[in-house]
Each structure stands twice: as C-alpha cells, then as structure tokens.
Amino acid sequence: MRNVFIILTLLVSLCSTVHAAQPNTATNSSSEQSTALNTQYENLLAYYFAAARTDESDVIEQFVHGGIPINSINIKGYTALMIATYHGNKNSVNTLLQLGANACLEDNRGNTALMAAIFRGEFSIAKTLVSQQCDTEHQNKAGQTAQQFAETFGQQKIIALLNQVKK
C-alpha cells in the first residue's frame, strides 16, 4: 500500500508540473518547465529501478501499466531487467519478461542481462534468460561472449547450459 501511495504521489506531482507548464503560465520559462518535467521523470525512473532492485514486482507492474517504458535505461545503460537480474530477483525478472522486457538489450559496456546473471552466479535466472532466444554468441565491448563470461567467473553450470543451447 505504501508503494501505491508513493507512485500516486509522484504521478500527481508530475501531473501538477505538466499543468503548471501550460503556455498561459507567464512565470516560468520554457526551459524551466522542461527541466522540471525531466526531473520528475528521472525521479519516477529512479523509483522504477529501485523496485527492480528490491524485488517489488507489484510496483514494477504499476509503473509499466502507468506508462513507464519497460526498457527504460539509467545512465549506465542498465534496464530494470538487468538490475533485477544482478540482484537475483527472480520474481521481478519473471514479471518484467512477462510484461515484455527485452532480454537482449546491452548496457553501456555491451553486457546483457544474461551476462549479469552469469557474473552474479544466478543459474535459475540465467536459465530463464537463455530461453529468451537472445544471441548467446553476442560479444560485449571487451569481446567476451556469454560462454567466455561464464568461463571467466567459473560458472560451470551455466557453461553446461550454454553448451546445451548450442546443440
């Protein structure tokens, strides 16, 4: 219930800012209005990513149904799916995938959600992500594939899983 209140408060605040940004308002310049809207939107995204980090699937659903683009990225290029994966939040990962999150997107370093699962040793999440039909031969900006990532981090179960997918 607290989460719903927070989201509603943020949305009302955003709507108030939009209303205040109407052309008839002589007190605010266009750039100030735009800055205020961007700040409000960035705050909403921060809460969206926090929900992914803390495994609050119901809040994620509310954000997506409220209009937040599911594949939004933060400054590092992380999506909510990548964040949920990195923190081992299987419920949020499943929710995001069911809502249409793209498991194949890359962060600023070219890493995918699958690579985050490999790095963190999250086998069950890696298994879910492998089933999303992303290119397992994709290379990040360091030239590593998911298989090489798994070898680097000693993830034998994931190496076996990736070998099964290749067959």
Automatic annotation (TrEMBL):
UniProt xrefs under InterPro entries: Ank_Repeat/CDKN_Inhibitor (IPR050776), Ankyrin_rpt (IPR002110), Ankyrin_rpt-contain_sf (IPR036770)
SUPFAM superfamilies attached to this UniProt entry: Ankyrin repeat
Lineage: Bacteria, Pseudomonadati, Pseudomonadota, Gammaproteobacteria, Alteromonadales
Sorted UniProt keywords: ANK repeat, Repeat, Signal
Name under which the protein is recorded: Ankyrin repeat domain-containing protein
Species whose genome carries this gene: Paraglaciecola aquimarina
Signal peptide: 1-20
Transmembrane segments: none
ANK repeats: 76-108, 109-141
